[in-house]
Amino acid sequence: MIKEFIFLLFLTVGSLSDIKSRRVDNGLVLWALMSIGLYYLLSGNYSGLLHGSKASLITLLLLFPFYLMHFIGAGDIKFLMTAVFFTGGQVLIKSIIYIALSAILIVIFIFLKTKNIKKLTYPAIVPISFGLLCGVQVYSR
């Protein structure tokens, strides 16, 4: 229950921060990593700690080329790596379609509002958070 609360708080604060400033606070990422790490240690869930670490590293390796091509920001990658530490890699796989669809909808909405494709920026953490929540629901069935 506490793990889920911390995860939901992390997603909410991260999304609100990204909406407000289009960036993710490193302090939030550090707090979340320390919280989930401490949770795993205190609960004796060493396999969760190991699995979360592996899933985070795989996420970094898979997304780093997209960062180099300027398709995704470093803060977005750190946020996603931290979120995957909570959920594991299987949830990320189940979440990808939801993340992509919600990102497309947000981009379309912002484009219709601003009518400027050249300066289009969007809060990527919002669709990541929404997609992960959908993925958690699908995975838990």
Class computed from helices, strands and strand pairing = mainly alpha
Number of helices: 6
Order of helices and strands: HHHHHH
* DSSP summary, beta strand count: 0
**What distance separates the N and C termini?**
17 Å
Structure characterization notes:
By secondary structure, this protein is mainly α. 82% of the residues lie in helices and 0% in strands. It is built from six helices and no strands. Helix 4 (74-87) packs parallel to helix 6 and helix 5 (89-114) packs antiparallel against helix 6 (125-139). The mean pLDDT is 89.
Key attributes of the depicted protein:
single chain; 141 residues; mainly alpha; 6 helices
Strands, helices and their partners?
Elements lengths: L1 H20 L4 H17 L3 H23 L5 H14 L1 H26 L10 H15 L2
Helix pairs in contact: 1-2, 1-6, 2-3, 2-4, 3-4, 4-6, 5-6
Question: What's this entry about, in short?
Answer:
The protein is mostly helical and 141 residues long. 82% of the residues lie in helices and 0% in strands. The two termini are 17 Å apart.
